[in-house]
Prior knowledge:
The structure holds two protein chains of two kinds.
Chain A: H1 7-14, H2 21-42, H3 44-52, E1 72-73, H4 76-79, E2 90-95, E3 105-109, H5 110-126, E4 135-142, H6 151-159, E5 165-175, E6 178-181, H7 183-194, E7 200-204, H8 206-218, E8 231-235, H9 248-259, E9 266-270, E10 279-280, E11 287-288, E12 294-298, E13 312-317, E14 328-338, E15 351-357, H10 370-375
Parallel strand pairs in A: 1-14, 4-5, 4-7, 7-8, 8-9
Antiparallel strand pairs in A: 2-3, 5-6, 9-10, 11-15, 12-13, 13-14, 14-15
Helix pairs in contact in A: 1-2, 2-3, 8-9
Chain B: E1 2-5, E2 8-11, H1 15-29, H2 37-50, H3 53-62, H4 67-80, H5 83-94, E3 101-103, E4 108-114, E5 117-121, H6 129-139, E6 143-147, H7 155-166, E7 174-177, H8 184-191, E8 196-201, H9 203-212, E9 218-223, E10 226-232, H10 237-251, E11 259-265, H11 269-287, H12 297-314, E12 319-323, E13 330-334, E14 347-353, H13 355-363, E15 369-375, H14 378-391, E16 395-397, H15 416-419, E17 421-427
Parallel strand pairs in B: 5-6, 5-8, 6-7, 8-9, 10-11, 10-15, 11-14, 13-14, 15-16
Antiparallel strand pairs in B: 1-2, 3-4, 4-17, 12-13
Amino acid sequence: MKDKELQAREVLFKYKKIYDFIGSEQLFLNAVKESVRYHQVNNPVYHKLLDSKGFTAEDVKDMKDLDKIPSVPVDFYKTHELMSISPDKIEVHATSSGTLGQKSQVFLSKRDIELGTKMMIKSMWHHRFISLTPTNYLLLGYEPKKGNNMGNVKVLLGMTKLAPAKEIVFAIRALGDDYQIDYFGIIKSLERFSKQPFPVRIFGFPGYLYMLLSTMKSMDIPPLRLNKKSIIFTGGGWKKMSNLSVTKEKLHALVEEMLGIPAINCRDFYSAVEHSVAYPECKYHHMHVPIWSRVIIRDIKTLENVGFNQPGFLSFVSPLVSGVPITAVTMGDLAILKDGSTCGCGITTPYFEILGRAGTVQRKSCAVSASELMERGQYGAFI
Amino acid sequence: MEHLFRGKEIQDHELHHALSLLKDTVNTDLLLEPLDSAVVVHAIVKLLDQMDYDYLKDQLLSIGVFDWKADELITTIRTAMTKEALETKISRELGSDFNRWTVIDDVTKERRQPLGVLMHIGAGNVIALSVLSVLEGCLSGNINVLKLPSYEGGISLMLLKELLRIEPRLAPYIYVFDIRSTDIETLRTLSEVADAIIVWGSDEAIAGIRQIIPPTIQLIEWGHRLSFAYFTLGNHYQNELEGLAKEICISNQLNCSSPQTVFLETTNIETVKAFSKELLDKLIYVAQDYAIDELDIPVQGEITWTKENVRTESVLGQRYLYESDDQRICVMVDLKPKLKSSPKYRNIWVVPIRRNELLPLLREHKGHLQTAGLECDDGQRDALTQLLFAAGVNRVTTCEQMSTTYVGEPHDGKSTLVQYTRKVSMRR
């Protein structure tokens, strides 16, 4: 089965109202069933996984069957290359970000990319992030470099197409095999941007943004007033900077103080290369679920669906990708799902909030933890 | 926030002033007559005699320690801190010539004496570890400056205040500061009076301290460790599995001496599977006597995540998962020989291995190795023990005894009290 024959997926992705669950529900169900069937047929490992749970695509009958689709924990993609297409059909080979340990390997076909791009454009259009005004960009992510397959680099570059780029500045510069944040260079660029009439868009990890603004403040650098149509998009979580993490409110306040950008223009995104649907925040900072996926929160012990308002493992169901079987995946993040019908932003689909990573534990133990073993050898440059 | 300055309670607003006096105060006290360890022993014994153990138990329960565990901790403390035990510890570790001159020749003599000032960077990992560290510092005659750990619930401070109330002569030797780990400036101020800094904690904590401490100050590190069990095949292991199960349940694999991985000396997959199922059965049986509550979300999250990855991989036959019906206990098999850390709380790895793979594999972790619980027949014990020592293991015990210590036992291959002393020499 070729991926162009994934017709149900095509129909779903043509649907215009991207936050209309009710109108698109059957389309979604059809596409998910088609996706499970497709990977079952084309991927022997996925076939085995489904067999081991006695599950087939035919078991996807209605929405309440979604949580029964065997959900693969994303670490599996770090240690196994699971292609559902032939290698010559791979358009993009993306990996998860980060510099420690193994990376998830995700393979995307040409059509996966095209649909993913359409999805992003529709989403960005809905949230009014598409503009014709020339814009300056500051990307708090990794500079593109040969051999760097990290998904987030490609996504960041893609985001610079939403408004014509006058200038793009990368914050994390490649220096040989290593990467370093060029704080000084960033501040100089922002000062330059603040003197121009163009909006500024800043993309990147919230930790780097926080460090940048705190550094500016502690060095008594005068606050800047960027164009009022400027936007900040954060994503990727706090990662190794989790001990510095602050609340959204605090970060927004600092952004407003040092850059003059109001909180309503500070939008966080959740995205993961092992899932591939991105979740931008609405103006009230809620990450609503669009029609191309569903979020299931799984019990911390049993992995059963806990529904709304209970913390658990974040898991997704989406028919977007044909290159690798990620129709149903469980993330290593803990999250909570909320009813979005009273959000007030105009979107009524549920939204989720990330609570933290599973596995980063301050435990009362003097035994080496698994995460310590992974980080061994890094401590020469820790602080 | 409360602190102790030269044994006296001070409040937060007095801290800045007190720190400005620290150097001069310590310098004066360094000229005091050596602290007699008998005074320290007497104070510790009296502290334990007068302790309200119900109150202590309540304190432990209030910070999440399980009931039977609190009892076990209290028993351990009382056994280790009798007059006889403390005196044995001192004589075994420091010998009979501590603070006494040993004549080398007509003009030369040597003496072992305290380092001087010890700074302790406490870890909240193990309850009251900071107090024990300070007590060891006192037993070896040092002035002690303790930076309290963040997650301890105040037990160390409470115990040290009580100790000082019982024995005011210890005042010059005890300082306690409740400051944040991120308060680098104060940490530096404290370190400036120290001859040595004792760090308890993770690799990350130790690396952090290494970065800010000058090379002239000795660093004594008691870091996290990785311990494991090693079983050879044979009739012996039926009994020892119960001992292993007990160690796993009582310690919850949280101690530096607790097993994270069980190596089974075999290449036969069916044997590994059978062993793992037996271990699971034993764990379920033993755990009945050592009930624990539902775990916190982050802790449970790590366990579930680890298990789910193993479960998924079991479809491909590379790993296997054996789990109790209530999902509280599991044995995870990984066919690739590796020393792994477990997610703790009765979730353990079993890994098959050939004997000739063991040493190179263990050497990958040489800085972390501590205890090996060895179960084999008698004829193989010496050879295997030598191999384990050569790899860097410091303690070889039975599985049941992995977390049991004896008085004066070296910690991580070193005698604690000796670490806190130095040898001086004099020549006329």
